[in-house]
Amino acid sequence: MMSLPGIGRLGWVGAGILAASVLAPTMHGAQLRVRDLDDELVDPFKAPRDTKAIVLVFVSTDCPISNRYAPALARLYERFQPQGVRFWLVYPNPMDPPEAVRRHLTEYRLPLPALRDPRQDLVKMAGATITPEAAVYDRERRLLYRGRIDDRYIQLGLERPAATQHDLADALSDVLAGKPVRQAAAPAVGCFIADFAP
Question: Which of 121, 125, 170, 197 has the most other CB atoms within 10 Å of its CB?
Answer without folding.
Answer: 125
